[in-house]
Amino acid sequence: QVLLQESGPGLVKPSATLSLTCGVSDYSISSGYYWVWIRQPPGKGLEWVGSIYHSGTTYYNPSLKSRVTISVDTSKNRFSLKVNSVNAADSAVYYCARLNCTGGCCYPDYWGQGTLVTVSS
Amino acid sequence: DIQMTQSPSSLSASVGDRVTITCRASQSISSNLNWYQQKPGKAPKVLIYAASSLQSGVPSRFSGGGSGTDFTLTISSLQPEDFATYYCQESYNTPTLTFGGGTKVEIK
């Protein structure tokens, strides 16, 4: 059982930077897999934010690419998300997850519980 | 970019009903399609991966089908615990992901 836990501020001011960390337990990030951030605005659907491999290779949603940075710290077994210049549309529950790739098809199999981030002054 | 369109966006059904949700991709994605169930306040849970493979621990009343651009999720006999929102997700260009807009299954 892989455990993931998001942490970070629940309230961020407009134009500031949103920063979240995902701690991973019972599995070493260095062992493989991609690790992803997915968000869900209140009452809306799921949106992939980005993915990172343990080597540090990243992939971002084109709609967010200019404002998003995902990084990994294998020594602390965690990965992080930064979103710059946030606005109200960035308010969402942010999930971290492990991306399982089986037979060429990839899906998040282990998820964190999610953390609500509200952008407001 | 690949777009995923789910239909219907919501449906009302009764316990015991057979329910089918569809998902259409804007281009062929082979069998790189997964289905999730999400209940309020909870993270999504994978039901079906690679279009038709049942995730371990998921009841056999859930099944998936399709390939290319058109996919289905079928619940053969709807149970009370199945009332939730369902999402499809493609991973053709791994590790980038695209989700469908969701289908809310409500009690009739």
Order of helices and strands of chain B: EEEEEEEEEEE
On the 0-100 scale, what is the average pLDDT of chain B?
96
- Give the amount of beta strand of chain A, in percent: over 45%
How far do the termini of chain B sit from each other?
36 Å
Q: Tally of extended strands of chain B?
A: 11
pLDDT below 50 for ≥5 consecutive residues: which ranges of chain B? none
Q: Compute the gyration radius of chain A: what is it?
A: 14 Å
Computed structural class of chain A: mainly beta
- Average pLDDT of chain A, rounded to a whole number, is 96
Provide structural commentary:
The complex is a heterodimer of chains A (121) and B (108). Chain A is globular, with a radius of gyration of 14 Å. The mean pLDDT of chain A is 96. The termini of chain A are far apart. In chain A, the strands form 2 sheets. In chain A, strands 2, 4, 5, 6, 9, 10 and 11 form a 7-stranded mixed β-sheet that branches. Helices cover 0% and strands 55% of the residues of chain A. Chain A is mainly β. With 108 residues, chain B is mainly β. Chain B starts with a strand and ends with a strand. The A-B interface holds A 34, 36, 38, 45-48, 51, 53, 59, 61-62, 95, 97, 99-109, 111-114 and B 1, 31-34, 36, 38, 43-44, 46, 49-51, 53, 55, 87, 89, 91, 94-102.
Secondary structure layout:
The complex is a heterodimer of chains A (121) and B (108).
Chain A: E1 3-7, E2 11-12, E3 18-25, E4 34-40, E5 47-53, E6 58-60, E7 68-73, E8 78-83, E9 92-102, E10 105-111, E11 115-119
Chain B: E1 4-7, E2 10-13, E3 19-25, E4 33-38, E5 45-49, E6 53-54, E7 62-67, E8 70-75, E9 85-90, E10 98-99, E11 103-107
Parallel strand pairs in B: 2-11
Antiparallel strand pairs in B: 1-3, 3-8, 4-5, 4-9, 5-6, 7-8, 9-10, 9-11
